[in-house]
Write a structure and sequence with these properties.
Region (Disordered): 1-30
Transmembrane segments: 47-65, 100-121
Number of strands: 0
Largest sheet: none
Order of helices and strands: HHHH
Number of helices: 4
Organism: Leucobacter luti
Radius of gyration: 36 Å
Keywords: Membrane, Transmembrane, Transmembrane helix
Biased composition (Low complexity): 21-30
């Protein structure tokens, strides 16, 4: 029965057992141990991070700073440009895509807010009651100035 086990074939040469390898000294600080993987170089992500931050700030500015309607879309454009450059330079893909999306949303929301403000201003300016009130206040101011 034991002659059927692997390694018991008399026709194969026998290999003498070898002593275990001597332990190696630990690697110095900052060096990779022999046989291990070398540390991966940090991926540059400055443009991707900048694009993401500017895109998020542009999105918040488009929504929260509706009284300054051009600020959010302007930041959105800068965020989109930085994110596209980061994607071309193979920087952090997740941050670059986040910057691209938030920048585009900042542009779209900012344009919608801008259009809404213009439509509201047009409606207010064409209101006859408002025009009559403004004319009355203007006459009142002129009378006050002439009496003084």
């Amino acid at each position: 029965m034991s002659e059927n086990l692997p390694g018991n074939d008399p026709n194969l040469p026998t290999v003498p057992p070898q002593a275990p390898a001597a332990p190696q000294a630990p690697a110095a600080y900052g060096q990779s141990p022999q046989g291990g993987y070398a540390p991966v170089a940090a991926q540059p992500k400055g443009l991707a991070l900048s694009g993401m931050i500017v895109g998020i700030v542009g999105l918040v500015a488009s929504v929260a700073l509706f009284f300054v309607p051009g600020f959010g879309p302007l930041l959105g454009v800068v965020g989109v440009i930085l994110s596209i450059i980061a994607l071309v330079k193979k920087q952090s893909k997740g941050m670059a895509i986040t910057g691209l999306i938030t920048g585009a949303l900042a542009i779209v929301i900012g344009v919608i807010v801008w259009i809404g403000i213009m439509v509201a201003a047009s409606q207010i300016a064409n209101d006859p009651d408002l025009q009559q009130q403004l004319e009355q206040q203007l006459e009142q101011l002129e009378q006050d100035q002439s009496n003084s």
